[in-house]
Amino acid sequence: MLQWLQTDLAASTARWSFVFFHHAMFTTGPHAADTTLADMVATLEPVFSQYDVDIVFNGHDHAYERSVPQNGVIYIVSGGGGASLYDVSTGDDIFFAASAHHVVRVQLDGCILSLRAIDAAGALLDQIALAKCPHNAYLPLLLKRR
């Protein structure tokens, strides 16, 4: 799987690059203590950084979390689809966390990406906007909570 991932990322010519898989690499939820987490980070994080992945989406922990960028990569845990919620908090690696049922909406408008986490009542939990326009570097436009 690792070779496939590297080959696929290396072949991509897309402006935006996303990776999706189940187990969260950066989380403060109950799975933060999983013994395989350090190996996952050591193996995958350099690959994501090398191939300029913009956002990695994970589930597994039943909450919403957004990481501090790790070597340019943002990690989103979106596990608040309906099951019982987990307690989460901010920390060294997590910029924003909410124990809330939610959806994550990503909108691409050419070189602008906007991401919004919206709770079950329709309220905005979190948002970011990123730009990858030819006339500027990879520039975070907005990295803040509500």
Terminal CA distance reads: 37 Å
- Can you say what the CATH homologous superfamily is? Metallo-dependent phosphatases
According to CATH, the fold-level topology is: Purple Acid Phosphatase, chain A, domain 2
State the domain count: 1
Helix content: 10-25%
Strand order of the largest sheet: 1-2-4-3-5
Helix and strand pattern: HEHEEEEEEEE
- Name the CATH class: Alpha Beta
Written description of the protein model:
- The chain is α+β, with helices and mostly antiparallel strands.
- It has one domain: Purple Acid Phosphatase, chain A, domain 2, CATH 3.60.21.
- It contains 2 helices and 9 strands, in the order H-E-H-E-E-E-E-E-E-E-E.
- It has helices at 2-11, 37-50; strands at residues 18-20, 55-58, 64-67, 74-78, 94-98, 102-109, 112-119, 124-131, 139-145.
- A 5-stranded mixed sheet has the order 1-2-4-3-5, with no helix packed on it. Strands 6-7-8-9 form a 4-stranded antiparallel sheet, with no helix packed on it.
- It is globular, with a radius of gyration of 15 Å.
- The model has no long low-confidence stretch (mean pLDDT 90).
